[in-house]
Amino acid sequence: MKGHSPYVLELKAVSRTYDLGGGRTLRALDDVSCRVEAGRSIAVVGRSGSGKSTLLHLAAGIDLPNTGSVHLHGRDISQLSDSERTRLRRTEVGLVFQFFHLLPGLSVQDNVSLPGWIAGRSQLQSRALELLETVGLSDRAGQSVEKLSGGEMQRVAICRALLAGPRLLLADEPTGNLDDENADLVMNLLLDLTRREGSTLIYVTHSDEMAALADEVWHLHSGRLDIASPATDPRPASGA
Amino acid sequence: MLRYFFLSLRTQFSRGRSLFVLSVLGVALGVASVVSIQVLNDNSLAAFRGGIRAISGDADLTVVGAGPAFSDSLYPTVLGTRGVELAIPLYQVAVSLADDPETYLEVVGVDLLAPTGLPVNPTSTPGDDDGFGAVSEALSVPGWVAVTPALAEDRGWSRGDTFVVSSGSRSVRLQVGALVDFQSYAPLASRYLAVMDISQAQALLGRPGKLQQIDVHLAEGVNPEDVRETLQDELGPMVRVTTPSSRTDDAANLLSAFRLNLTALSMISLFVGMFLIFSSTQASLVRRRREIGLLRSLGATRLQVLAWLIGEVAWLGLIGVAVGIPIGLFAATQNVEVVSATLTNIYLLSAIDSLRIPAQTYLLAAFVGIGGAVLGALFPAWDSTRKDPRALLSAFSVHEGTQGVAGRLALAGGILIGLALLATFFFRESWRYFGFAVGLVLLIALPMMTPVLVQAVSRITPAAGFNFSLAIRNLSARLQTTSISIASLAIAVSMMIGVTLLISSFRSTLATWVDDTIRADIYITTESWVRGGEDAFLTEDVLATLRGHGDVAAIETLRRLSLEIEGRPIWVGGVSLTLPDSLYSFPMREGNARAALESIRASDSCLISEPLSRKTKLGVGDSLQVRTPRGLERYPIVGVTYDYSSDGGTALVSEATMSRLFGEGPVQNVALFLAPETDPDEVIGELRAALPGVPLSYRSNRHIREEVFRIFDQTFAITRLLQGMALLVAACGISLTLLVVARERVAELALYRSLGALRRQIFGLFVGEGLGLALLGLVLGTVGGFALAGILVYIINPAFFGWTIRPDGSWAEWAQQCLTILAVAVLASLYPALKASRVPAQELTREDL
Ligand SMILES: Nc1ncnc2c1ncn2[C@@H]1O[C@H](COP(=O)(O)OP(=O)(O)OP(=O)(O)O)[C@@H](O)[C@H]1O
Ligand SMILES: [Mg+2]
Question: Using CA of residue B474, residue B478, residue B482, residue B487, what is the dihedral sign?
Fold first, then answer.
């Protein structure tokens, strides 16, 4: 059933512990199980240190669980080699970060094209421009990213994350570094774009307002996951 | 603050071990090259000085010949001069060992019964072991000679053994009569020093009735200068009355150009090492800017922080010195032979016997190592303490500054170079050290051009993928770090290419000259001729045998004398000039060859070599001042020839002129021109058979060319070592830079990883960046190298050696060097690349880009 799983992401009894030295360990994620269907949007909320970023790292395949398993499109990432995992991430996962992480030496368009370069897919170059068009930044394509505002930077970063057409988009506090106005703009863009692309979105947020925009909200309490649907769900759950 | 200092020192080390090791290595290699050259330089004169000390002891004055060996009839005059208490006649001759002709014994003939001060005791008998040589047999046993225990051990001799030496065309059997440790008496003396009875030395190895030196001890209370003047007047112009110390000074003068050039080259490695410290300090400051900010906001003054940072670098320098000294000493011992060969073959000084490390070497090493490190750290440290604490505490990029400054820096560099060019145009010849100053300006200006070059190259590099082009563009994103490393590589490359160009130009100029001047089929001289001087002559019967050979069509003889000309000792050749005109070829720098040949044949005029012409600023139309038995006389210069045989300069006259001025004397060298179609090797074989046991050295035309280039390559062997050291330091610089870059860019690397870059892609990217650094360094370094070669060939060389060198270089050699450098750069980037490729993607959330 490899690759034919109905779930984009599936965590089975996942725990992630950190060795703090001196025999002490820290349980960042504790026996977490969950499934995500294609096309859904999920908000992850919880206190600082509750394990939100850890969860996203596991989902992206840049970190591995100590126990349990993480399945990305039906493939158990623990069973993959580092390079297989990396290749899977290239095509299937897009990442958006709180601090944008754009490369200062590159232009706006080049920053968006970067995943295409890495994957050796030059045909994505034109898609970069299309994506910039949709976020309203096509006229800035040739500029250096250093001259952009925070909101603009995050829009560029979203384009970058979507470039390879990933089925799973992971965003760690994408609006955490933006003012309210920009935060709304970026959040809506993110939701719109993922929906248009048919991708699944999992994002971490500290704001209830932002969380309310998702199909589902996951609460993390000291590493334990508590899944709840928002009280007012405007849309029918797709793919169910 | 002090507690904090030591605490932070420990953390620094454990956190950046590889950075630490590389910076220490950079300093160490810089120190090593300076130390090795200084030790060799110091020792180059030590044996000579030691020899003077061992022989002349505490003599107040020394009478030495200013031309051919002088008559011993001068001795009574010296003794009879007022104020002279004791006069010791000496006959010195260098003879070569028959079974190892390149090893010379410096035989000193002395009156063993006179109170010479030598550790030989005429009254003790052979059984006595009082630490002094027993010389009771010295006068009665033919060939009795006292040698050093060190030499005896090398050669496996013991008292009573005999061995054969050659002096000119004579072979003489000597007997080890005593083992005398001159070295314990004058610690720097050479082990090749040997003492025998003066009349035996004259008769067996030299010429009876002649002396080379008279050491004079003065009576108490007399003014040495007065006696010196009186003696000089009484003895006439063919001797020079001098002091032992001024003889050492003369030798030092002789060597000064050689030593200065090595010193300058050794400084380059240190200079490159300074860049290393600059970037490692920079790197540690980038990592610790918050720490510095915190210290400042907690009340540490700027000066305190600066002292703290400088102190830390000084420690690093100290460790570099500790590591560098043994490396330098090792390099010195490894190269002592080639330097020693240069000293003996070219400058006719004593071989370096064993290396002694003067105490000031350690001081010098500490000074240059710690000083260099502190100097390298000064700017980045000062720069970072200048920022106010708030700026330091906030996340900022230290690289922001360089981008804007790059243009201005390049402009300043350009102006510097322009000024240097202008100055070259006007002042090139007015100051002897001008070439070094221009070289220094070049080495300073070159790094200033780097940031702009990096920017320009990255700007024109299209962003086309996760490949080499991205690597190049990344170089400009970390401009300050990468520029420094490119600059240091460029300097090392400049030196490599500059010196290589000099050597290849020199070599090809020499080749042309050799082609022009080495015309005879066979050159014959004696085995001891290199150092044997006047005494290494060919006897009449040997000459007669050579002349008598049926295949010898023509013969040219050369008599060589060391004469004092224009106040300096110079080799003067007296040639027979009996050949048909067409066989002579003088490559003329000034004057006409035919006319000059006519003139030196017909009159007492001379040709001088280019170095002599440059040093004395004399040319055709001027006259040369020569010390002759009749006093100082002047002879017209009819031509200036290109000549690469001695940087001290040479002059050429006819044999007739030489005899007229200095009396008849034996010849030292002979050139044979053979009948057409004769095989020179066959003739050599026949001559050997006709002169059995005569210690001659026969060289065919081809053979002598090989010999010339062998000596040439030997002379430059040490510069190859220095080139290698500088390259090694620069390689450390590349590793260091990439490590720094990898560290500074953890977040960026994590980003690549999270965007799907494989480990080997990151690895490739870093190797690509290493390659990019190397390529840019090569480009700049090649430009700098050509400029440096120009300075060496056109300014430094004429000023110090006095040769015309025609520029010449081979592209193949250049390409080979470039490939070497690229290979070194790639090697140097492997480890940093490996480290970079291991950065995990999770690092991204922990740090800002
Ligand atoms: N590499 C690590 N080593 C040790 N502990 C870690 C490591 N990474 C994360 N942790 C710990 O795991 C816990 C969960 O971290 P995580 O980054 O997932 O929290 P978070 O919910 O994202 O917090 P925030 O909202 O502050 O970003 C925290 O207590 C953190 O200190
Ligand atoms: Mg987090």
Answer: positive
